[in-house]
Amino acid sequence: MKTAYVAVYETLADWEIGHLAVELRTGRFTGVPWSVVTVGESLEPVVTMGGMRVVPDVTIADVEPDAGDLLVLAGSVQWDAGGGEAFAKLAAQFLDAGVPVAAICGATAGLARAGLLDERKHTSAAKEYLQATGYQGGDEYVDARAVVDGDLITAGPDSPVQFARAVLQRLALADERKLEAYEGVFHRADATAYPALVG
């Protein structure tokens, strides 16, 4: 079974990665369930922005990119406060190993500060948001709901469904017809797309 490591930290923006985590863990539309493993800086519980208490399965020190197939980074207050450096370093290790990294909202700012967006196409909440980090990747910014560039998937906070779709696409877990149906059902509330999603 393939493994998705999901970083967890105080004020994790739960809604940003909810769609993706469910589709990976259940495989309900892809037919391929994954193991979802939460990663903390320690094994101490964290409280998400929505008030849910999460006890990490493992710590950063326990994680080797070769043992996983994806790293997921959600937004949180820590990224905007200039924190998250340990997780940005972990992302760098995953990217260096050719293992996909999916970052949404504030996590993109953390990756920007770490120099990981300087030479990769990416998106975020807004171009100005990332420019405030002082990063050098402004020319690589794409004004889109989600962007895939090689092993990096990025999205802004308003695009959790597009984020999930982009990751499922990068992982080759669904074809274009099913991905379009997925966005149709969960973003556009298009009931006519449901048969293609479950078919």
UniProtKB/TrEMBL annotation:
Q: Which GO terms describe its biological process?
A: proteolysis
**Which keywords has UniProt assigned to this entry?**
Hydrolase, Protease
Q: Which Pfam families match?
A: DJ-1_PfpI
What sequence ranges are listed for the domain DJ-1/PfpI? 2-169
Domain of life per record: Bacteria
GO MF terms held by the record: peptidase activity
- What's any one GO cellular component for it? cytoplasm
**What is the designated name of this protein?**
Putative intracellular protease/amidase
